[in-house]
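fyi for ur records
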Amino acid sequence: MVSNSDISFSSGYNNHMKFDGKGYANKIENEVKARVAQLKQKPKIVSILVGNDPASVLYTRLKQEAAIRVGIDFEVERLDRVSKDIVAEIASRDEVTGLMLQLPVPDLRGYTLKEVLSSIPSEKDVDGLRYPESGVVPPVVTAVLIILDEIAVNSKLKIKDSKIVVVGAKGFVGSGVVAELGKRGTQVIGVERGDDMGVTLSGDVVISAVGEEGIIIPEMIKDGAVVIDVGAPRGDMAKEVYQKASVSVEVPGGVGPVTIACLMEKGCKHEQ
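which gave:
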């Protein structure tokens, strides 16, 4: 992983710190590229893309471009519908070292999402879609954790002495962040949609992963808090929230690029 001294921040509003996700992701990718170059066999990731949702198409393209940069083979399997059998068939291919299903899936052919995801072997679950069963922490959760650690190194934030509030704590991303922070013994409180303003106001760190534009407003954040916006695709936090923070991880250019870089790192670790 990238050393602490290499972390990139830029000066933001009123000289507060703004995390440079693209810069940090580039450094991770350089490390992954060097590792891939030493492998006897390239890792190969297959991404199953169902339908034509514009956001899904965009995210898949960004992942593919990152894979090309680091030297990982990346194949996009375009489907109109998906089933357990189709996923299992793709997963059974010997050359496939990592398999992911781009969410959301518009047509599951009568199956539940959990049933379809269960067809991804744990050892090929590079996207952490079967977390926690697979033991693979989702790259987006990993990204949030390492960004938080880097902020702590480069600011006055002391994580163990801080109250961390996660908004959207029952969702895929939020629940993973809460669980992994809990394993560290961190003081973390999970809420839904920021409904309890008193809780978010008490947070030294506020992480939001709801996916609903502008639901976090300045009145919900105390002056000088650290804010990490994981709301895709346009961000959960109003721009004024970033301005109120001491450190901001913003959308775009914050968690997103680091997530894709972490995915490449996990894909590299799945080589055979």
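The mean pLDDT is 91. thats all i got for now
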